[in-house]
Structures are given as structure tokens and as C-alpha cells.
Fold this protein.
Amino acid sequence: MTEATVTPDPTAARSTLLNELTKALKQIPLPHVDVDGIADSRRKDIDALAAANAAALQGAQDLGRAQAELLKGALEQAQAVLRRLRRSAGDATPSTRDLVVQGVQRALSGMKELAETGYRAQAETFAVISRRAQEDLHELTLRLQPKAG
């Protein structure tokens, strides 16, 4: 009998952990401290990191797909050159040389695309984390102001 593998829900685990932390902090007398606000800020931090991880994963997947396409194109080009060489008994004609040059140009173009894809993924990840850091700084400034009441 095989046991079913249960994948834990990271959102539920994160929410439970933050709720427990908030309850624990509320039990400690901390005058003029907005415990709910602090917990909410930490929740946003965790959400921003999760979004950054998702962006990084998407970038890695896009990069992998682009690499696979580049490899597929290069292999197809090589096969075409080999077929042409076999048909012409090994003579390198101008047409064959053109195929080789085109294959190299295509590979270089693909390499450039891969570099741009990687850069975009990194830029998106940095933007998510940077945006959350700015929000966190603003929230911290608000939290340090005395609580009314």
C-alpha cells in the first residue's frame, strides 16, 4: 500500500506562523507599538519574497525554453549541412558555407536573446524586492510614530 504524498500549502503555513507570532507579541506589554501593523509588514515582506521567487522561477523557465529552442535550431542547421555534404560527396560549395555561416549567426543571435532573457528576469526580481523594501521603510516610519489614543 503506497502512502499519498501531501504537499504542504506554503500560504497556509505562512499565515499560521504569522498569526501565532502576532498572538505572542500581543501578550507582551508593548506600549505604543502597533503589533498588527508589524505583523502585516512582515506578511508583505514574505509575500514580496514569494513573488520574487516566482519571477526568478519564471525567468529560469523562460531561459530553459530559449536554450532548448536554440539547441534545436542549431541541430537542425547541422543536420541540413550534413545532408547537403552527403549529397555533394563532401564538396563544400558556397551554398554549404552559407548554411554554416547562417547557423553561426543564428547561434550568436540566440545567445544574445538568452542574455537578454536572463537580464529581464533578474531586473523583475530586483524590482519586486526593491519595491517591497521601499514600502517597508515607509511602513516602519509610520510605525515609529506614537500611536494615537
The two ends are 61 Å apart (CA to CA). Residues 50-144 form one domain. The CA atoms of residues 18 and 39 lie 7 Å apart.
